[in-house]
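At this stage, I wrote out one protein, both as residues and as discrete backbone shape codes, and that material follows here.
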Amino acid sequence: LPAPAAAMEAAPLVSFGVVADIQYADEEDGCDFWGRRRRYYRHSLRLLRAAVEVWAAEQPPLAFVVQLGDCIDGVNARRGAAEGALERVLAALRRLPVPVHHAWGNHELYNFCRDRLASSGLNSRPAPAPAAGPPAGPPGDCHAYHFSPAPRLRFVLLDGYDLSVLGRDPASPSHRESLRRLRERNPNENLNSPAGLKEPQFVEFNGGFSQTQLDWFDEVLKFSDENQEKVVAMGHLPIHPDASDKVCLAWNYEDALSVIHSHQCVVCFLAGHLHDGGYCLDSHGVHHLTLEGIIETPPESNAFGTIYVYDDKMVLKGRGRISDRVMYF
């Protein structure tokens, strides 16, 4: 048997779908910011619908699907088409009989302010957790939370744009502080340019984790350590340089890694943002999996997967550009 098939002989604890960077727009094909990479704006919705058909037919049924951010493209904002584009993506995902957990990426924030996202179908933060567990999420408008779909298994969704100049009122303290941090490390006139930077992740299309969010994350992982849980963390932005190019990392990715590495429970970090995808097993035994993006996937292919979680491993069954992978822990 091929490795993934052999690894999947027993019933999984839980299975879930994964997809990243759909970036749908009702537009002709375009290019990336640098004019080098083709983007298939209309076809991205067709590929998502095909993924939904596969997920909906999975047996045993999936527990949930993770959408890792950038579900519609920033071009929608320039056309006044953001609301309609978002509704088409959400309508496709509503065909699933299971919950969808949404990370927020830079393209969501090109189209909407954070308040609008919080009142939209992209707000997947659940109701507050029972008093016995860690807080459901950080205080404020941070879109980070955790949930447990099976005993001794916890998922944590992080908000990589908690610190960001995108999606916030320019007069707000958070925007001013984020802009200060960005300009300290990026003197370029174009803040989306990493040219000449020692830390090339400090560009406007990335963001970072506030100390409040990191402290909350640390508290959740402490709870999981104490209760012998395995944790899968996830967010739009990659946090390990060996699973991404340096330009696509979260601003303070090292701070997030430091929290993870101070605990025993985290087995995997899932991310999007880098459309080519990436993978590494880090020095602490944590798998970092960056999913290839649908937006740059040709219409005859696809880019999504299903992950099956077992006591000692996660098995990724990829479709199209996403490869099969077995991640032992």
